Amino acid sequence: YSALDTNPLSLYIMHPFWNTVVKVFPTWLAPNLITFSGFLLVVFNFLLMAHFDPDFYASAPGHKHVPDWVWIVVGILNFIAYTLDGVDGKQARRTNSSTPLGELFDHGLDSWSCVYFVVTVYSIFGRGPSGVSVFVLYLLLWVVLFSFILSHWEKYNTGILFLPWGYDISQVTISFVYIVTAIVGVEAWYEPFLFNFLYRDLFTAMIIGKKFMLKPILTSLCYQN
């Protein structure tokens, strides 16, 4: 496994944090179990939000909103899942148990998480007048999945996985926004944050921005040639 991470958030904040966290785990703990545990937290968040917001209308005006405690739980679990995703590889190297199968298992679950992450955070805005349509959500899911596939296609051609900046930034931001939503309520996202741009537009722009934070096509073509 060869990866290149140039994200300042990851390099100077998250990696030192993960290096500290991984020392808490006993050496007998399998890295794949850490990977799977983080994935289960992501799925649990999705199912919890699906229970309270099955039709994506809970955040719309005039509808029964998701309880504040749910946003706090989802925010905390999202950050824990992100942390586990960051330490599983460190645990594998720490215990000298890195394998190609472990990498496949890790990134295979990450590919599923792409869907769960986006759909879960979608409940913050939902389908109301200040929300996002389901069709736009569908397109955003394809943007995220395409970015994920593109990164691994680049790795296939170059032998190096150039980790996109958008992942770490989005995970920290999402966890933070969940907690903020519990404090200020979903009503805070109804109003424009700048001129006529709503927070739903910022949500859309952030996800699309993840795609343009990648540079896989040119790099891959250069390595091929």
Automatic annotation (TrEMBL):
GO terms for molecular function: ethanolaminephosphotransferase activity; metal ion binding. This is Ethanolaminephosphotransferase 1. GO terms for cellular component: endoplasmic reticulum membrane; Golgi apparatus. It comes from Diceros bicornis minor. Pfam families: CDP-OH_P_transf (PF01066). The keyword Transport does not apply. It is a multi-pass membrane protein. Its cofactor is Mg(2+); Mn(2+). Belongs to the CDP-alcohol phosphatidyltransferase class-I family.
